[in-house]
Predict the structure of Glutamine--fructose-6-phosphate aminotransferase [isomerizing].
Amino acid sequence: ELGVYEDFMMKEIHEQPEALRATLAGRLDAEGRVDLSETGLDLRHVNRVVVVACGTALHAGLLGKGLIERLARLPVEVAVASEYRYADPVGDENTLVVAISQSGETTDTLAAVEAARYFGGKVLAVTNTRGSLITREADAVLLTEAGPEICVASTKAFAAQVAALDLLALELARVRGTVSDDELLSLGRDLRRAPEKVAAALALLEGKTEAAVELFEDARCSLFLGRGPAFPVALEGALKLKEISYIPSEGYAAGEMKHGPIALVDEQCPVVAILGEGVLREKTLSNVEETAARGANVVAIAREDDAAADRVGRVVLCVPDAPEILRPLVWSVPLQLLAHDIATDRGLDVDKPRNLAKSVTVE
Ligand code: F6R
């Protein structure tokens, strides 16, 4: 079943283009038009969105929040399911609750859905598992089509969740008229290139992690930094690394460094920085320069031929240029590969990290 791959994690990282293609298929046509009528949801009266999820799915939710707020101008709350279920949450029948779960069986996420029932919220389940419990609890279902994910650490299911939320953001923007038709179609056509761009990232990064892995050989801990859409990607990169390599790793908004975490920085605390684009890239660069000045070994995730990245990074992991909507997916690829290669370098079983289960059906 593994084919040419040494483990399921590597296989599933490489299945991301296919997971994206299958998740977009039938929901996004060649002109860039989105069709989510399969959900049967009437989105016209939605005035607020709440995302409930755990772990990696929560990070996909944070990316969804950014896009829904920017395009559809709706307030979005992203809630940790285990907290939300006991929080006596606020909402009404116009609140759309988006419950994201690869397995569809996560107890805390199911309980969060139940909590949303008290205020009459409509629940959309974004899940990878047909017939799972959550598909029965929700009002509507948007299946991610990543195929079975065997590795405990989620990769291709995450990519598919991000794509599903991108579709939802475009659909909410269309229904609400917050983005012009032309721009919506153009964003839709960009989104259609997700499989191609993620495949390009995989090709570009093949066999390129060695120097970065070396920086982690004596690591006590590590920090993952990003701003804007790169922040949730940093959180996900840190989660991936800590769960399979057992190196304490934290994701931080790059601008928060000076409020505490920079005290951690020394030669044994590598910093992985997703530089991003535009104004945020400049801001991130200056935050990362501060860590480098304090001795951090920086792994910069940047576009090819980025001279500033070469200056600040001991190692640069290059990603292809991509339309804005696809960048979080593209940035995720080097972080997944890095986590995988650091853990295998330590002789660890990446598919079955200690203390973890694929599906968390206890509280
Ligand atoms: C991390 C990981 C977990 C899951 C979380 C939710 O790699 O896989 O954090 O994302 O346990 O699981 P689902 O999506 O099945 O509800």
